[in-house]
Amino acid sequence: MDDLVIGMAGSGGDGIVSAGESLIAAAAYEGYHALMTKSFGSQVRGGESSCRVRLSTNRVENVGGALDVAVALNWEDFLKFGAELPVSGNTVVIYEAKTGVAPEAIPLVGVAPTEVFAVPIGDMAKQAAGSDKAKNTVVLGLIAGWFGIAREAILRGLRKKFIKKGEELVAANQRAFEMGEQFAREHPLKQPRMMKRPDEKAGKKLLTDGNDMCAAASIFAGCEFFGGYPITPSTEIMQFYTREVWKYGGAVLQAEDEIAGIGAALGASIAGKKAMTATSGPGLSLKTEIMGLASIAELPLVIVDVQRGGPSTGLPTKPEQSDLFAAAFSAHGDVLRPVLAPTSVADTFDVTVESFNIAEQYQTPVLLLSDQEIAQRKETVDPIDTSRFKIVDRRKPTATELSDYHRFRNTEDGVSPISHPGMPGGNYQGAGIEHNERGNPTASGRVHQAMSEKRFRKLAPLKRRTDLFKVEGNPDAALALVAWGSIAGVCREAFLRAKGDGLDVKLLVPWLLYPIAEEVYRDFFASVKAGFVVELAYQPQLYRILRMFVDVPAGIQPFNRSGANPIQPREVVAQLRNASLSLQQPAMPPSSEV
Amino acid sequence: MTTTPPILPTYQAKDFKSDLKPIWCPGCGDFGVVQGIYRALASVGRAPHDIAFISGIGCSSRIPGYTTAYGFNSVHGRALPIAQGIKLANPDLLVLVAGGDGDGFSIGGGHVPHAIRRTLDITYIVMDNQIYGLTKGQLSPTSKRGLKTVTSEYGSLEAPVNPLLYVLAYGANFVAQGTPADMAGLADVIEQAIRYPGFSFVNVQSPCVTFGMEGQQVKAHRATMKTLASINHDPANRLAAMDLAQQYGQSLHTGVFYKNPDPPPTLDGQVRERQRQLAEKAIPRERILDMFVQK
Please, which pLDDT band fits residue A147 given cuts at 50, 70 and 90? Predict the structure, then answer.
């Protein structure tokens, strides 16, 4: 096998997520491509928890579909995850024997897996380590045994994890691991499924999640200030800053509320520093007023919105793509605010650096729209050559410009030289009130028109940034997919499979969501007769926005549903297949000719 | 031995005055406040370009524009968070914050205790006129109970906020009050506030000539004001300060209510210290992703 999807669930104390982390760390060390998502009930401690780990010898961009391996430490918790842990007839099901459920009576509706193992996981842990805390280590042994994955790297990881607590605990966990392996040896699968080894040349990979990647990328981009307020699922960005930013001469403020968080970040930007804030849906609403201030005061600022299920508290631990309308349109007054979205942990680096570059280049707030899945999933990332990135800094005034300084000079490209407190000669009045080129307040309709035009004009070149769009497949294909954010990874796999099945299809993945680059879409849709804009939200928001700006072919339809209902690549492939069949049918003659 | 050159004042009050004509009504108390700020800044002697002057929304929040400092007239109630970001980003700057009573004790009231507990070295000047002037005469958080305005046709049913007692209770280390009726005193408390190492708060009774109460105009201030020095108040005594602050709204005391003689370390100072301690642990920016390599 070259691709393995493992799903595990248990109660909070079972350490199932920790097992997943050990597994993916070992996989990254061995050079596998891997991806892991965690999912929890809403309890702070205890309650149900689960994780999915996907390992592959090829690039992985989504959590995959039905599980190849399902591990249930108890069935009640496992079943709570429903569609997040889908089991098929091919799934190898491993569960705690102590549940007392017979292998032929496992409580899965509509599927009858052929390989089902009741394993006395808790008893084995007690026997090996004297405590059932080692249950998760037994599970690792079972997986390593049956699927031949990363034995040495897992043991190495266990040693690293437990050595602080003493050799005895390391030895106990090694015994628990080996008991799991032994069980697997003694109970071989009917149909052996050993994973292929990764390519020798694969090399070690980076391993991180989207939030940490975003934070690291922002520091690479030169950010020196973070102001924010804790909110799931974005808080890890602030946590990263509290550990790291001081080392780079910067600062972080955990503010008293979301508004103060963005306010402080805006202040840092006024002071001439690159700055950011991060939040999730409800916090985005609170920050909206100051985002408007940043637009009219023409200050660079990056606002990260890690989307979750909404509105309001909604589903705070689940992914959804339902903040795009808010990102693009939640503004008072005439505002154009760039919105970018990463599609994976890996490209979170690129998109974050781009967001800072655009903010600096055009002196504008930029909204970076991540989502819970990307933000909190762990992913292996091939080493990134940071030297290929250009870092943009805001345009400082020249000595000549300072001699007669106009902070908001209406230049040809609309970008004005920007000074900051501390710079002699650059003194100006920044404001939320409309102002003339010198920054003095005005209520003149003529000036307001001219300044609005300037603020829109300066962003126009963005729409020509074709590098912010990833297009794949035959340019003349009649069948197409459009997807953004974490769903893009699902669609890319669907696209590859559909192509593999002989469908002539192409794929468009925008990093830049807003402003809509009309020409990019016009070119892409020119050959298209049918296809889908795939989104994880009840309202197909990108689809709707595209229809505001672009002549979307009638055959392009939304394929979408609410967050926390994962879309699987096979579903997208099925949609494409149906659409392709409809294209092959002869067109109905116009009714007048009948 | 070298001779020390005589120390000349580097700046005069007029160096801080901009060309912009204030929008304030003739006789507005805010004219006095901006004069007090010019004088205090001249005395402190920092260059205008090293000063960041942040305000919220309201008549009084237009004040940065009438100075030659870097100014920022932000949104209603958020001057303090923005100013704190500026100070954290560049602790070398002299950071002034100003606004009205609505800005500081109504829409932005939630930011005040946090600005105080963080002890950043910034100065917050509230121009308190007990009325919303820019929107033409509505109740403000410091309006007296019973006050009739366009939003309290039959008289306000609410007790006012007591800004002095509030900030003292929040733990402010420098609290003063002034009035344009005593320009020398006003400039003095603003200067002391700016020089105080940490968060300093100055409440200025700055009358609204258009919508304010008659008994709260400059003339009335002149007749009724009592300097704290004249009653031998010890500004190191926080409880005595709180006692006096309770008379807010009844008696007009001016001068320094409280000045902690032993100021706690400033946040900006501590941030610098932390930056210095941790600088050597930085992975070069271009190699920051090394932290994610599985070892």
Answer: very high
Q: At B249, which CATH number?
A: 3.40.50.970
> What is the number of domains present in chain B?
1
pLDDT at A592 over 80: no
> Measured between CB atoms, does A202 come within 8 Å of chain B?
no
Q: Are strands A48-56 and A3-11 parallel, antiparallel or unpaired?
A: antiparallel
Is the complex ipTM more than 0.85? yes
Nearest-by-CA chain A residue for B113: A256
The secondary structure of residue A569, as a DSSP letter, is: H
Please state which of the ranges A106-110, A172-176, A293-297, B73-77 shows the lowest mean pLDDT. Answer: A106-110
CB contact under 8 A, B88 and A268: yes
Q: At which residue do the structure tokens 């989104």 appear? A: A535
Q: Is residue B212 part of a domain?
A: yes
> Is B89 in contact with A273 (Cβ distance < 8 A)?
yes
- Is residue B8 assigned to a domain? no
A326 band by pLDDT with thresholds 50, 70 and 90: very high
Asked whether the beta carbons of residue A293 and residue B75 sit closer than 8 angstroms, the reply is yes
Q: Which chain B residues have a beta carbon less than 8 Å from that of A213?
A: 292
Instruction: Give, in degrees to the nearest 5, the angle at Cα B268 between B263 and B272.
Output: 120
Which residues of chain B lie closer than 8 angstroms to A255, CB-CB?
81, 114
Q: Let me know if residue B285 belongs to a domain.
A: no
Average pLDDT over residues A248-253: 98
Cα nearest neighbour of B110 on chain A: A256
pLDDT over 90 (residue A12): no
Which residues from B are below 8 Å from A332, CB to CB?
A: none
Question: Is the pLDDT score of A584 beyond 90?
Answer: no
Q: How far is A478 from chain B (nearest CA, A)?
A: 41
Which domains, ranges and CATH numbers included, belong to chain A?
A: 3-202 (3.40.920.10), 209-380 (3.40.50.970), 395-464 (no CATH), 467-584 (3.40.50.920)
pLDDT band at B167 (very low <50, low <70, confident <90, very high): very high
Name A12's Cβ contacts closer than 8 Å, sequence gap at least 6.
Answer: A40, A43, A45, A46, A47, A48, A49
B282 within domain boundaries: no
Q: What is the mean pLDDT of residues B268-279?
A: 98
What pTM was estimated for this model as a whole? 0.95
Q: Give A191: exposed, middle or buried? Use CB within 10 Å, 0-12, 13-18, 19+.
A: exposed
pLDDT at site A590 = 56
Does position B4 have pLDDT exceeding 90, yes or no?
Answer: no
Closest in B49, B275, B279 to A426, CB measured: B49
**Domain range for B231:** 13-263
Cα–Cα distance measured from residue A508 to residue A383, given in angstroms and rounded to the nearest whole number = 25
Residues of B with Cβ-Cβ distance to A290 under 8 angstroms: 75, 78
Integer-rounded Cα radius of gyration of chain A: 26
Residue type for position A531: G
How much is the average pLDDT of A106-128? 95
Report the DSSP beta bridge partners of residue B203: B126, B177
CB spacing of A267 vs B81 below 8 angstroms: yes
The predicted pLDDT at position A200 comes to 74
Q: Which amino acid is at A432?
A: G
The answer to whether A225 contacts chain B (CB < 8 Å) is yes
Query: Could you write out the three-class secondary structure of chain B?
Result: CCCCCCCCCCCCHHHHECCCCCCCCCCCHHHHHHHHHHHHHHHHCCCHHHEEEEECCCCHHHHHHHECCEEEECCCCCHHHHHHHHHHHCCCCEEEEEEEHHHHHHHCHHHHHHHHHHCCCEEEEEEECCCECCCCCECCCCCCCCCCECCECCCCCCCCCCHHHHHHHHCCCEEEEECCCCHHHHHHHHHHHHHCCCCEEEEEECCCCCCCCHHHCHHHHHHHCEECHHHCCCCCCHHHHHHHHCCCCCCCEEEEEEECCCCCCCHHHHHHHHHHHHHHHCCCHHHHHHHHECC
